[in-house]
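Notes from the 1:1 (GR / supervisor)

We went over the backlog. Supervisor wanted to see one worked example end to end before approving the batch request, so GR pasted a single chain during the call. The sequence is below; no edits were made to it. Supervisor asked that the structure be written out right there so they could see what the output format looks like.
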Amino acid sequence: MAHNEIDKDRWDAALLRCPQRRWYMQAWVLDLCCPEWEALEDDSSGAIMPLLWRRKWGVDYLYQPYGTQQQGMFAPDPSSIDHVAFLRSVPKRFRYWDINLNAGIDLQAETNDHLTQQVNQELLLDADIATLRAGYSQGHRRNLRKCGDHPPVLSRDIGSEEFIELFQRTTAARFGGVSTGDLLSLSRFLVEGTLRGQCRLLGMRSEGRLIAAACFMEWKGGLLLLKSANTDAGTDRQAMFHLVDTFIQDHAGTGELLDLGGSNTASVARFNAGFGARSTVYLRLVRNLLPPPLRWLKR
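Structure output shown during the call:
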């Protein structure tokens, strides 16, 4: 389906029927990060797949937009989908792909493919907070106790601009910077997510100054730690431990699944696992169907 043929309400309704749905696959999120996105749909199985694309050197290619982690096919019964056949139905004009498939997709590499495993961490909030905290690592419990009888006061009045400013000079700078366009997309996620009641910003202040913050998204039983930002002062106060723990406490016993936005980076994975999160694996698919010499340039 071309972009102008997509019924956005129908798309979201179809997504809601899929157990592996993701917050960032909602139509409004896709509109913000890839305004001309297209889609595949299989009426018989209810399966859908966004085609997130852009153009470079006259070539249309599929990519992973900033702020999204997994895409690919989503279906009410993922096991009923022929993943290979579905992917082969992607329009031939997309000669190059670099996308992350969702965790429900198992695939073998074809001739022009390169597959690598990516790791995410998730925590099911199906117990009370005491039980969930008992599943924390000793190190995490120790960090939460360092404040003694005076736990830090967390702020829930964080504005999107304030968060973006902190994120830009901390997390983004540490990882080599984030483009102006990607920061704009992130800002739009926060603004529109807040208007829709899906965005929650938690932070820690020192003398009125924001020293750490986390952005969570909430949608239909799914929770996502989208981005976080932490200063040296926040690190000294174990801010991120308290921010994530507070969010877990807010949702304890709901049965919701918290996606901690995991990473192959060992330190990030350890931090997430310390809250009792389990690792899941999804695949990054690079498919190169470009003609020479472009094919060789993208190797």
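Supervisor's comment: The chain has two domains: 3-116+283-297, 127-254.
Batch request approved.
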